[in-house]
């Protein structure tokens, strides 16, 4: 919060040392927090600022996410009235639940923007689930059961990454329904892997890594509950007594070891079904709480497992698409030519998100007149179509560049006309350059179709962005005139061509990204080109950028 002299509030949050306090804006995002709140919640301010307070902190008494209709902060923002209570639960940084007494009141800052001030302190609540006294799922009201299923649908389908989906599944059911959660999944090769074994201990979900890993094959003739679930047969209520007899398979032995190692006295096992096939099995177990699972519980577990199956199926389809696209991209990325008098290196880094497949590419090849062509490009989009469009644009550019000796602007103009005629609408940015021998050295001639400008970094001088020769991106259908630009390449200087994934960030301006790139390039100019590319990807690429990146570097030796 700002000081009064600066037009802010009449107090500072750090002065409220005996209660946890945070402020949200009119969207419910945290804009200020005091040290006591950091201490109580076991969360640093940096992990709270800018986050949606409801999604990050607010939980039901069993640890389940709350619908927004039950958010006290949102009610205050809408009604403009102060409210208080002692039946709120907040999730701490270590995953434990904290009962709090709370008060929420509306406020306006010095600029007149609306928000809410939240004050809370640690408190006890008779509704908190205590050790050995947690209610079973069957004791949940029907409305709560429906809310849990709705939350499962919304939460599980929000991610397209298998590991994230498994993590959210466990978060939904532990500790609300069970002390233990076990997720077994089929791999792409048809084998079974115990993907997660999680125990709720002292308010924290703990992964038991020693119980995770590859599982024995699933025999078709096995009648044991886990084998039946992995074959898609109906779910089962299970106890350790079901595995005390002679095992009929190795997977039954593994399951008996699971019961022995966890102390579970009651479990529900349900198949996790995808659209076309079974993708795994979900086992929920109870060891600390005395109540055994009931048939009603089992029906709820089956419903949750079914929703998890659809989400996991979608996540795997996206991961397969990503692998196909990445394979296509990597096969299209060239082996850099060896050109006497020039040094070259290049790198390609895929997007960190499995659902984001980009169309970035680089290319380098020797032209018929002996000059060297350099290309960096980015097809608009983040899917398999973008990768396919990249392949077509890349091949067409190679074909046009190799036909006749023409300036880069003419070749890119012809490429633009061809892109417009493609069956699938494609838009792309590209820099096409020729590195030519000149009197006593080398010269760069290039044209730029809507792409971030090349960077020329000298050892003893400032970095310079080559902004000349810029024009519209490809595929607009406007047939713009294009220009060429030229620059002499100083001996020892490094020329960098890159895609926007290296510099763009949702949290910073483009100018900041370009400045960061220029500063690092100058400091790295003496290193080998491969090391320069690796360092730029590690230190310049923003952590919150979800795009792929291509970089190509060239140096004229001194």
Automatic annotation (TrEMBL):
<keyword id="KW-0597">Phosphoprotein</keyword>
<keyword id="KW-0418">Kinase</keyword>
<keyword id="KW-0460">Magnesium</keyword>
<dbReference type="GO" id="GO:0005524">
    <property type="term" value="F:ATP binding"/>
</dbReference>
<dbReference type="InterPro" id="IPR036457">
    <property type="entry name" value="PPM-type-like_dom_sf"/>
</dbReference>
<feature type="domain" description="PAS">
    <location>
        <begin position="8"/>
        <end position="74"/>
    </location>
</feature>
<dbReference type="InterPro" id="IPR003018">
    <property type="entry name" value="GAF"/>
</dbReference>
<dbReference type="InterPro" id="IPR001932">
    <property type="entry name" value="PPM-type_phosphatase-like_dom"/>
</dbReference>
<dbReference type="InterPro" id="IPR052016">
    <property type="entry name" value="Bact_Sigma-Reg"/>
</dbReference>
<dbReference type="InterPro" id="IPR029016">
    <property type="entry name" value="GAF-like_dom_sf"/>
</dbReference>
<dbReference type="Pfam" id="PF08448">
    <property type="entry name" value="PAS_4"/>
</dbReference>
<dbReference type="GO" id="GO:0046872">
    <property type="term" value="F:metal ion binding"/>
</dbReference>
<dbReference type="InterPro" id="IPR035965">
    <property type="entry name" value="PAS-like_dom_sf"/>
</dbReference>
<feature type="domain" description="GAF">
    <location>
        <begin position="161"/>
        <end position="322"/>
    </location>
</feature>
<keyword id="KW-0479">Metal-binding</keyword>
<dbReference type="InterPro" id="IPR013656">
    <property type="entry name" value="PAS_4"/>
</dbReference>
<keyword id="KW-0808">Transferase</keyword>
<keyword id="KW-0378">Hydrolase</keyword>
<comment type="function">
    <text>Primarily acts as an independent SigF regulator that is sensitive to the osmosensory signal, mediating the cross talk of PknD with the SigF regulon. Possesses both phosphatase and kinase activities. The kinase domain functions as a classic anti-sigma factor-like kinase to phosphorylate the anti-anti-sigma factor domain at the canonical regulatory site, and the phosphatase domain antagonizes this activity.</text>
</comment>
<keyword id="KW-0464">Manganese</keyword>
<protein>
    <recommendedName>
        <fullName>protein-serine/threonine phosphatase</fullName>
        <ecNumber>3.1.3.16</ecNumber>
    </recommendedName>
</protein>
<dbReference type="InterPro" id="IPR000014">
    <property type="entry name" value="PAS"/>
</dbReference>
<dbReference type="Pfam" id="PF07228">
    <property type="entry name" value="SpoIIE"/>
</dbReference>
<dbReference type="Pfam" id="PF01590">
    <property type="entry name" value="GAF"/>
</dbReference>
<keyword id="KW-0904">Protein phosphatase</keyword>
<keyword id="KW-0067">ATP-binding</keyword>
<keyword id="KW-0547">Nucleotide-binding</keyword>
<feature type="domain" description="PPM-type phosphatase">
    <location>
        <begin position="339"/>
        <end position="556"/>
    </location>
</feature>
<dbReference type="GO" id="GO:0016301">
    <property type="term" value="F:kinase activity"/>
</dbReference>
<dbReference type="GO" id="GO:0004722">
    <property type="term" value="F:protein serine/threonine phosphatase activity"/>
</dbReference>
